[in-house]
Amino acid sequence: MLKAYDYAEVKPNTTELQNAGLFNKEKSAALRFVLAHPSHKEEKKCPVCGSAHTRYIFSRWDVNYLFCEDCCSIYVPAPDELISEYLELEEMRNIRISDEYQQQAELRRADIWDELVMWAQFRIYRYLGKNTGLDVIDYGNRYKGSVDRFRKSGICGKYELKNSILPIKTEKVDKADVILYMNQLQHETNPAATLTKLKDDLKDNGILILNTRLGSGFDILTLKGSMDSIFPYEHIMLPSRKGLEKILQDAGFELLEITTPGTRDMESVLRNKDRIEDGNFFVKYLLNTADKSVLSDFQQFLQKSGLSSFAQVVAKVRK
User: Fold this and answer.
1) Is 248 helix (H, G, I), strand (E, B) or coil?
2) How far is CA 76 from its chain centroid?
3) How far apart are CA 82 and CA 102, in angstroms?
4) Whole-angstrom Cα distance, residue 250 to residue 284?
5) Cα–Cα distance between 171 and 191 in angstroms, integer?
6) Could you report the per-residue pLDDT of 251-286, keeping only the tens digit for each?
7) Measuring CA to CA, which residue among 18, 182, 23, 163 is closest to residue 95?
8) In which region does residue 93 sit, left (phi positive, over 0), alpha (psi from -120 to 50) or beta (all else)?
9) Is 161 helix (H, G, I), strand (E, B) or coil?
């Protein structure tokens, strides 16, 4: 298995990935749903590793997030039907398929999508020996700009978009050379079972490309419940890197490559340093005394050591 990292300097003034007004609409819709549908599930076992050694770590909107002391994953114990109902919320869907939402996403995420496609092209060639004319299934992609880039990249011979809110017609793919599973793991109550089902859509030598937020990331563990971009039931599964490897193993996948190319951990903590817990003296000292060069070096350390809160994975079905 290849473990790698990408390095970029800390840029505190980087453009936000989300328009503030639209993001507040998303959060408001989520908040109304959560308050009307509180989770009372008592199951305390970790859905990643099955450990009963779990404890409370933080709460958002009176929903408790638990921390697994064995695999260090963070999760919300919530019933499947509740999460399914949230994911089908019409108010949220209408916000996200609106022209304004899609246009703002294009404006703010274009460079990220371009980099993602180039990263995927390189990895697909590395593991399949070709990266054009392939059968691709893309699960849950809600961004038209991202869909367009993959369809026009040359990677796809046939492209099928599944389980998406976007009203886009695509071709039917029976078995895929490549499955894209981007930013979907955060919704899963039983991630290993979900990934196990994905194997049915893969050709014998096909690969899974997945990315996800990590609960073991520096910004999440530092800011915890005060991190604005993490909220129920949008984020109920935040595996650690160790937990993510366990999920893939349990689902019958062989991990080919894992990278932790996050570049925004320090930026996120800097932007919210007034929300850091009083007892976190090290981080407070770091932010108050370090110059830009030190902060950039620290972000590089997070990337290199797997402590960034974002992971990209390439895997294949274990023989």
Assistant:
1) helix
2) 15
3) 27
4) 39
5) 27
6) 999 999 998 877 778 888 888 888 888 888 998 898
7) 23
8) alpha
9) strand
What pTM was computed for the model? Answer: 0.90
Task: Collapse the DSSP code of 136 into the 3-class scheme (helix H, G, I; strand E, B; otherwise coil) and give the result.
Answer: strand
Q: Is 223 helix (H, G, I), strand (E, B) or coil?
A: helix
Biggest CA–CA distance in the chain, Å, is 56
C-alpha to C-alpha distance for 250 and 113, rounded to whole angstroms = 30
CA dist 158 and 160 (Å) reads 7
Q: Whole-angstrom distance between the N-terminal and C-terminal Cα of the chain?
A: 15
For the record, the structure tokens of 311 come out as: 């992971």
> Considering only CA atoms, which of 79, 187, 172 is closest in space to residue 142?
187
CA-based radius of gyration for the chain:
19
Strand order through the sheet with 253-259: 2-4, 253-259, 310-317, 202-213, 176-182, 134-139, 156-162
pLDDT in tens, 44-101: 899 999 999 999 999 999 999 999 999 999 999 999 999 999 999 999 999 999 999 9
Omega cis (within 30) before 233: yes
Three-state SS for 295? Answer: helix
Alpha carbons 58 and 176: distance in angstroms, whole number: 39
DSSP lists the bridge partners of residue 3 as: 258
- Asked if 162 contacts 140 with a C-beta cutoff of 8 angstroms, the reply is yes
Is the per-residue pLDDT at 138 higher than 80? yes
- For 143, the token pair is 């961004």
Say what the pLDDT of residue 14 is: 46
Contact 137, 162 (CB under 8 A): yes
In sign, the C-alpha dihedral spanning 75, 77, 79, 85 is negative
